[in-house]
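SAMPLE LOG
Freezer: B-3
Tube label: C17
Construct: single chain, 625 aa
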Amino acid sequence: MKRCVVICAVLACGATFAYAEAVFENLGHAARTRGTSFLFATDGPDGSRIAWVQYEGVDGLDLLGARADTGEIIRVDVSRWGRSHIQMRPGEDGNIYAYVGNPSHFIRYNPRTGELTDLGCPATPAHYFLGHTFDKDGWFYVGSYPATHLVRCNMNTGEVQSLGRIADDERQMYIIHPAVSDDGSVYCPVGLHHQELWAYDTRTGEKKQILPESLTTAQGCPKVWRAVDGQVYGSSGSAQFLCRPDGIVTDAEILPAQTEARDRGAGEKLEFVQIGADGNLVLKHTETGELTQIGTDYPGRPLHIYCVGPERAGKVWGGTISPALTFTYDIATAEFADHGRLSAGAIQVYDIENPPAGSGLSGLFLGSYTGAYMQYFDPDKPVEATGNPFTFEQVDMQERPIQWCQGPDGRMYVGTIPVKGHLGGALVRIDPSGGDPARMEVKSWRNIIPDQSILYCCAVPQTGELLLTASVQGGTSAIATQEEAVVALWDCAQEKVTFTFKPVPGTKSYGRALCSSTGIVYGVAGNSYYAFDPVKRETVMTGELPGKAVHFPGLADYPAGEKGFIYGLVDDMVFAIGPADHSVRVVARHESLSKAFGFYVTRDAVLYYGSGSELWRCDLSKGDQ
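STRUCTURE (predicted):
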């Protein structure tokens, strides 16, 4: 555990105050994936064989290799081109070709000499890509976000080309897992506002959307694959078809995908298997099946912390991104526990929350992405595939459940962002009074703030309402129709919006809000904050935060400390809003806060937060003076 003492100044209403020391503690890496599989193998220096896989970690972006003879781990840093996914494959010339960065570049790496060559940036903007394809002439194809550029690299000559933007509809920003047929037609599944399938003829440069209207109305993206006969086949929902440059054939015999024969040879009569969870390189003897293990210094991939909190039974809970794992930190023993994948959403754990007081429940509510999954998990019971965690019914067309809220009526609420390309979030209510999660009533209301997503909910006990903060943005790639975001009051009994207002004019997205001990609600909007009286229905003040970049989730779960400060993180600072005079002050600063994502403040003002893959802690109570 690393400890760092920082002496800070407090800012309030333009004045400067001295205050006690803040001690920041690095509690360590919360979770990591230990082992890894391999994509392919190449020759290395000195007659060695090296297995390769892409490494996309919070600590770097690399082409990662493992030598069969020594177990040495080789990391080829590609982060200089910017953060993105990595698509990579071996060329016939023994080099590795990859598409990396933001804006994305094709690169070539010679594993025998260590030479790394930038082949160029064929199109911009271009980043975030899933899948690639290749043809018999050595062209390596990738489709990218956000302009649906189809690009390619010739793995024989190093030439790179852009084949242009594929989709005509500006709401379509993704090409996902393209496939090329033996006749030179590249089939690009486009979405995710609605499904399209484009055929691009590399011989003529012509392109055409080939799905009939009956299949393009569905949200999402079709799937395609190159089959054993060299043709490309596809599916959309239950429909399967043969792809042709001028359309699809629905009555064709559907053939299975072609399996690419990838070289995983590790030497004479040996092949690469994986790096195991213990960090050992595993090789298999092809004749006997016997496994050999070689030690490596591969530490695994530390995972980016996405959410932190709450505290339950002396443990602080949290979740990660890519993949979505759940962890705990035991306050008494200072030990981490990796609980693996509990969430139904595979990519990130958005939030974890205790049930309302008086509900009789002792478990936790989980929210995860994708799919806007909402679940109930009892840590005191065994994890079971069919019942613990229990997954509630999904809300149609919703993707991201941002933050749980314990409502003033004893129910759990969460706001959502819709699926990619669409507008109109939902408010979801789960009634925990049923005890058994299978009997908990789930009810949802979509688009109650027209064409806006609901980001955060705040309980307003004195009026029996929820304060809802919204954003004009919808799912990724959606085109906003509203000029300004709003904040709304939802009557829990009448089940309707009763009041809307715009406390910070011109705001496109309102962040988290919290009700103070005085009954005034404080909320953030960009680098501004506001105070709202829910009884009088009026904004009593607005002000500027002491920084620009507010860190998720914006504000703490509840007022903390003797004075009921409302804490938040901005830039490299911890700020506190004082309910006595609406003032905002900086109570601590530390460089680790500049990378903060996900945080939790205990009732007695102890801050826990994620900084990259590390969990940090700072006792703020001494600044509560």
